[in-house]
């Protein structure tokens, strides 16, 4: 798959870190909402495709992200990938 937007998540310890890395790498505007609903909207409608998200160290993130943050973020990533045929999420 040739990539229009590539995002590499690394050493994610919180949703705030995930939002920051995504916003920086995807050149999102300063008013990006930094919540799960806004992230879903960005992933499904705002990014040039195809979109590839690679989450490095996701197993470590699962252990250290507070509460349900890891599972909430994974749900949004998977839901967005289900909504958009040209969005691929890779975990390593």
TrEMBL record:
Domain Barstar (barnase inhibitor) residue range list: 6-86
Pfam families in UniProt: Barstar
Stored InterPro entries: Barstar (IPR000468), Barstar-like_sf (IPR035905)
Similarity remark: Belongs to the barstar family.
Name of this protein: Barstar family protein
């Amino acid at each position: 798959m040739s990539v229009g937007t590539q995002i590499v998540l690394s050493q994610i310890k919180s949703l705030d870190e995930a939002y920051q890395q995504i916003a920086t790498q995807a050149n999102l505007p300063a008013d990006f909402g930094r919540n799960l609903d806004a992230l879903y909207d960005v992933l499904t409608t705002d990014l040039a495709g195809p979109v590839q998200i690679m989450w490095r160290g996701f197993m470590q993130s699962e252990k250290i992200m507070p509460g349900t943050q890891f599972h909430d973020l994974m749900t949004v990533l998977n839901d967005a990938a289900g909504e958009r045929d040209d969005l691929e999420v890779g975990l390593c």
